[in-house]
Amino acid sequence: MPVQQLTQFLDASGTEYMCLSHPPAFTAQELARHVQIAGDKVAKTVIIELDGKMAMLVMPATWRVRWERLSQVLDTDFVQLADEQEFQDRFPDCEVGAMPPFGNLFGMSVYCSEALSEQPEMAFAAGTHTESIHMKTRDFLQLVQPVVIQQGFIKPGGRKPAWLAKGNGRARVEVLPDGSRERPMARSYPSR
After folding, report:
1. Tens digit of pLDDT at every position of the chain (192 positions)
2. Are strands 131-136 and 121-125 parallel, antiparallel or unpaired?
């Protein structure tokens, strides 16, 4: 059964969603294969430690984190993958590795890849390795209100982003006339 807290939240908001049962999927890409949808439409939930606090990254299953770039985008000196032992108690009804991307229900900030936010629909683990929830991405964005970020992720085998393709492969930051550095843009979605 999906995490009760999540389904109650979705039901109370009037959100349409579908819950599917499937063979055990221990990665987001396995989930994509089991439910037969593109990996770009399956949300991978990654718990990070950001300046000493737990936060949640949500990105397409087929993408990976670019840690150095993510640190720059989030304007922090310290960001790393959180240890499962440190956060499993924050998700008491979830199997480890099957946390749904609703960090707001678990007291966490949520950062979402722009690539995932542009998908019309998404699927994600529903708290177990054998169930997933499918819903409209716009509903997810309205309910969770993540900070949507453009950079800090990479699709393996994909084309390098323009900012990385130019020059020596290092992130470029523009220096403005007043001497300040131009930061990459992040977006927030307003509530309904």
Report:
1. 467 889 999 999 999 999 999 999 999 889 888 889 988 899 999 999 998 899 999 999 999 999 999 999 999 888 999 998 889 888 988 998 899 999 999 999 999 999 999 999 999 999 999 999 999 999 999 999 999 999 998 887 766 656 556 554 444 445 555 555 554 445 445 554
2. antiparallel
Q: Can you give the pTM of this predicted structure?
A: 0.79
User: Do 104 and 98 meet the contact criterion of CB atoms below 8 Å apart?
Assistant: no
**Do the bridges between strand 64-65 and strand 153-154 make them parallel or antiparallel, or are there none, so unpaired?**
antiparallel
